[in-house]
Amino acid sequence: MSELRKKQRWVVGITGASGSIYGIRLIETLLNADIDVHIVISNAGWRVLHEELGWSSTDREGILKEKFGSYPGACIYHPVADIGASIASGSFQVEGMIIAPCSMGTLSSVANGASSNLMTRAADVMLKEGRPLVLVPRETPLHAIHLENMLKLSRLGVKMIPAMPAFYFLPQTMDDLINFVVGKILDSIRINHHLFKRWEG
Questions:
Q1: Superfamily for 3-188?
Q2: What are phi and psi of 41, to 5 degrees?
Q3: 115 is in an annotated binding site
Q4: Is 122 annotated as a binding residue?
């Protein structure tokens, strides 16, 4: 059995859509499960991390090491401009990729095969290699172009998980709402978790 199959590797992308905490919570959960995570963050994504979570973007690798360095899984950061990174090639095997949150600009690029940076190139690799690709759109309201791009990708097997938290489990905190969305992402890629209470009828 290869080393890859002994330990999972996933790619997580964070774009400039609001809701960067979804991507951060996802990374934390994967790393805590001893899964290696390859991270790519767009320049707009770094801006949102600063605006929403107070993260500094001056030492990007340093802050990721500070936030994620103590988990069992390994955190591997790839600058979005590094089109020659490992995850840009189909020969580098990973389980799949999640972009959370996914901006409409990134979604459009993926839907139309425009691989202009590492984020969209890595997503294109998932499509061409037939690996799982999960997008977490965070926009409202949606117009026809947004919906048509989502439909195009859905027909290719891409999973769309809009950031729509549920309320049937009576959430008490913001964390409860965040964990629900992240839990639904993990359900879609068949990774066990205990982030929210499941409906039992």
A1: Flavin prenyltransferase-like (3.40.50.1950)
A2: -125, 125
A3: no
A4: no
Q: Please tell me whether 159 is known to bind a ligand.
A: no
**Is residue 104 marked as binding?**
yes
User: Does the pLDDT of residue 3 top 60, yes or no?
Assistant: no
What letter would DSSP give residue 132? -
Alpha-carbon span 27 to 29, nearest angstrom: 5
- For the chain, the domains span 3-188
Q: 138 a known binding residue?
A: yes
Q: Is 65 annotated as a binding residue?
A: no
184 annotated among ligand-binding-site residues: yes
Say if CB 143 and CB 29 are below 8 A apart: no
Residue-wise pLDDT tens digits, 120-136: 999 999 999 999 999 99
Residue range 43-60: mean pLDDT, rounded: 94
What pLDDT score does 5 carry?
A: 53
- Cα–chain center distance at 165: 16
- pTM score, two decimals? 0.94
Residue 84 neighbours by CB under 8 Å, 6+ apart: none
